[in-house]
């Protein structure tokens, strides 16, 4: 690697460089390669028969059969949308939790509340849905908190006029790029669903605990079918 990099090439071709290493050193070398790529920003073509190695190292994967590329895409695309039975069988042992992201599994809630809506308007909106709670956003869709139907009912009984008095603000959040495996601790840390927030702190969607489980279960069932 040092000799190759000393020439400052634009592209590096690595043909199964870690295949002969023991598992511990192999993982260490994989981590070192990721660090090098981040620092040097070199294009690397990495050949491997190890799917998990490809998922760990690559931002794009080309799966080949009989000398032809049969699918080219991001690791998430490969795992979530295999192009044919060959790819499905090839990836059947891949864990979706290590590849799929929050942006892939998030949902749009049936009801969103905004800062210009008062308690009575909010009560009317709640009556149109079966939700027990709803996210409360600013005009530019930044998350302020969550309104629980029961808390709203209490506020109206007290003749309160400010919804922000009942906002739940201690909510679990993640970015669209967060991996499913990193959502587990968030899902168990709070009774509320996970809000997906982009780099501008704008609300993008919601992830319920059952959604995380469903995606893992569906993947397992799909693997059995193959």
List keywords for this structure.
single chain; 226 residues; alpha/beta; Rossmann fold; CBS-domain; 2 domains; 3-stranded mixed β-sheet; 38% helix; elongated; disordered C terminus
Report on this model:
- This protein is of the alpha/beta class and 226 residues long.
- The protein has two domains: 2-94, Rossmann fold; 104-214, CBS-domain (Roll), CATH 3.10.580.10.
- It contains ten helices and ten strands.
- Strands 5-6-7 form a three-stranded mixed beta sheet. A three-stranded mixed beta sheet has the order 8-9-10.
- The longest helix has 18 residues, at 23-40.
- The chain is elongated and about 75 Å long.
- The model is unreliable at 222-226 (pLDDT under 50).
- Biggest sheet statistics: 3 strands, mixed
The shape, in one word, is elongated
* Rg (C-alpha, Å): 23 Å
Low-confidence segments, given as residue ranges, are: 222-226
Q: What is the CATH topology descriptor of the largest domain?
A: CBS-domain
* CATH class descriptor name of the largest domain: Alpha Beta
Order of helices and strands: HEHEHEEHHHEHEEHEHEEH
């Amino acid at each position: 690697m040092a000799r190759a990099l000393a020439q400052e090439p634009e592209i590096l071709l690595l043909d199964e460089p870690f295949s002969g290493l023991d598992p511990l050193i192999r993982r260490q070398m994989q981590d070192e390669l990721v660090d090098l790529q981040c620092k040097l920003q070199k294009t690397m073509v990495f050949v491997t028969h190890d799917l998990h190695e490809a998922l760990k190292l690559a931002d794009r994967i080309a799966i080949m059969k009989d000398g032809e590329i049969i699918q080219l895409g991001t690791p998430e695309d490969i795992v979530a949308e295999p192009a044919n039975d060959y790819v499905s069988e090839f990836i059947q042992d891949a864990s979706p939790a290590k590849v799929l992201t929050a942006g892939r599994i998030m949902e749009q809630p049936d009801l969103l509340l905004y800062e210009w809506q008062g308690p009575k308007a909010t009560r009317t909106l709640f009556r149109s849905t079966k939700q027990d709670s709803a996210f409360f956003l600013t005009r530019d869709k930044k998350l302020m908190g969550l309104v629980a139907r029961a808390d709203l009912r209490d506020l109206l009984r007290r003749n309160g006029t400010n919804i922000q008095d009942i906002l739940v603000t201690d909510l679990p959040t993640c970015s669209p790029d967060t991996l499913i495996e990193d959502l587990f601790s968030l899902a168990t840390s709070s009774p509320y669903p996970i809000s997906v927030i982009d780099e501008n702190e704008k609300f993008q969607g919601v992830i319920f605990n059952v959604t995380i489980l469903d995606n893992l279960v569906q993947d397992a069932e799909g693997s059995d079918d193959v």
